[in-house]
């Protein structure tokens, strides 16, 4: 009976964690470039049940009755890096990255992902699909709260003001008659997207062993940059709400099982075990 308590409790915990993950997805449904987390439930290793006190005539061992489940748990949430829809903003500082087919990782079966390169607070390179850029007081193209967007040379890109134009290859020109080249946005190929870790503020950290390389000038991988657009979150609000309701129902079902076990234990202690 106590094992049943643990099994029902494990089910409640796993559904609670799934609900928290789905709630975070819904909270970022309007965050540009956000990639929805997804998780799967797995069972703990099952235990074999044997009959005690009855040895098998041939093997001399107790006969096996069957397996006993020991509960479930939710694995770590992994981001879904599917391309999000584009939304037109008409802001010159908004740049969306639209990727075509990318190579598939042989081990994981996941497609590679394209991303911009930015700097975090420590000056280290990080990756993002959030093209909702701004210009700081020094005229540099930044993301979020002053994080520099890096060009193909690995340095921050100075655009001066919002009067600039970006072509489909990421080259940035002044929006005047001279059309001076100010720089070029770097687009990187991340071979194993399953090794990307979210760090918050739209940053992604790569923990894989394969080398990340720039694909600027590589004709084998097709992509486009669209100025005046941002990539929307790839969260499906309708599906997420359905999954949230299902997680809530599963939580309540496990809760009722837990209450039933608790009532049975209460009766065993207070009624059956009472001396008459």
Automatic annotation (TrEMBL):
Belongs to the flagella basal body rod proteins family. InterPro entries: Flag_bb_rod_N, Flagellar_basal_body_rod_CS, Flagellar_FlgE/F/G, Flg_bb/hook_C_dom, FlgE/F/G-like, LlgE_F_G-like_D1. Residues 5-35 form the Flagellar basal body rod protein N-terminal domain. Its main location: other. It is found in: Bacterial flagellum basal body. It comes from Salisediminibacterium beveridgei. This is Flagellar basal-body rod protein FlgF. The lineage of its organism: Bacteria, Bacillati, Bacillota, Bacilli, Bacillales. Keywords: Bacterial flagellum, Cell projection, Cilium, Flagellum.
